[in-house]
Specification:
This protein is of the alpha+beta class. Helix content is 31%, strand content 31%. The protein has 3 domains: 142 residues, Archaeosine Trna-guanine Transglycosylase, Chain: A, domain 4; 159 residues, Gcn5-related N-acetyltransferase (GNAT) (Aminopeptidase, 3-Layer(aba) Sandwich), CATH 3.40.630.30; 153 residues, Aminopeptidase (3-Layer(aba) Sandwich), CATH 3.40.630.
Amino acid sequence: MRRRSFVPAVHTGQQTILLSIRPEHAERIFQGAKHYELRKVLPAFGFKRVFLYETGGRGVVGCFDVGAILKKDIDELWSIVGNAATTRERFYEYFKNIKSGYAIEIKNPLRFSEPISARTLNGDGGKLIPPQSFILLEPGDALYSALEVERLRALRNNPPKVNLRRITHENRAEYKRLVMQHISPNYEDIDESFAAGALKIHDLGYDPTGFFTTKKEVLEIVNHRNRVVGFTTLTYKSPGCVKTGPTILRRPFRAKGYGVAARVAIEEYVRPGKARKIYCTCPETSEGVIRYLLASGMRIEAHLERHYAASHNELVFGKLLVADEPSPHQVGPQIRELAGEPYNPVSFARDVLVGDFAKLFQATWSPVSQEFASAIVDQALDEKTRDQSEKPKRLVCLRRGRHCIAAVALLPKRGGAVKGLLLRGTRHARSLGILIESACGLASALKGRKLYFLHPVLDSLALSILRSAGFQTEGLLRAPYRPGQDAVVMSKFL
């Protein structure tokens, strides 16, 4: 058997071509029976995709991605492609009196729901003339853009099927490399430790650093041929909220519907665990990511100014997976107006502070375990532990007598933002205002350039105090940490 010699397509740009094709050959492509498209002439440069104009006036009926492009003497070309292209009789009839020919390897054929006519593509002017051989399409051309829109629509309606599985040992190095390559350009302070930290929490089975985070899973995205097409990271929040990302596809599988397929697979993966909501963030400059997130049913909930990087803003996307009703829980209706003074957490008895913190957290958000409250307090108190942590938690406390009657918990994030949670057991506005000022001072000492709070939307007193302190509203998150309890994002540059 003669060895097959493939000439790989040279993908130097984003060029595509439009080919004319007979209806019977187009049908064989979409049925998966035809794996090579034969041509007598092709452009000298590489191209990544072929759109198919079906003869007879039907219009553009679909497209396929280009694998390899072969140029061989006719007999050698037949020995390589054979019946994967056409019958022997048709092959030699087509290449009659031709010394050499081309075969385009067909990958990922995609049929449009309806053919697109030349008149539809170009308006009443009908500028498109069906090609005798091929037409070059380049980004920026009106025809290229129109066909790309239809291709993306077809992908959304017919995404490939993928599954998710826990990352294997042999793929960890590539996961780290891809995260570093694709995430670090958009975010400050992202280095090798970012992906390594996600894998560490994945292995531990729990997250020791987050306020609401319970665990992380780093997963492989696998197609129907059991090939790993990319990776995603799921961060589980309490109760029932899951952050998705980073989600990164390997280069050969991009722009082929796998992004949308991954979103479907993520929802299927988290539903058995009673997830209420999924959410994610992305830079406002990532237009392709924004389009596919919106196509998957995600909606923009917040627009964060210069959040994880000083060079661009960040969008927060969310999607409820279950019906959600307003919560009867409301912060502060029975709280007394108790004055207090800001105090260092070390001035409290540890057990008293742990108990007070747990009560304040429950009053604002949801019940927490003593272990959770102890972990937060211990890190805030223990300077050595705090310095060794990637995300050192800090507390600013409002003291009255022996007890903490309000607190701000701070969690520095990458890129200079500091996340704050206001937990209050008093409605004394002046004392709470002083507490917020103290939190801003500590956030600045932590080298934060921005402090942002997530706080229940129904706590009008707290939101009013934050506005008076110069915080601006950047979004409304649907039930992030408690069913039915929406939260406002309020931020201030320090």
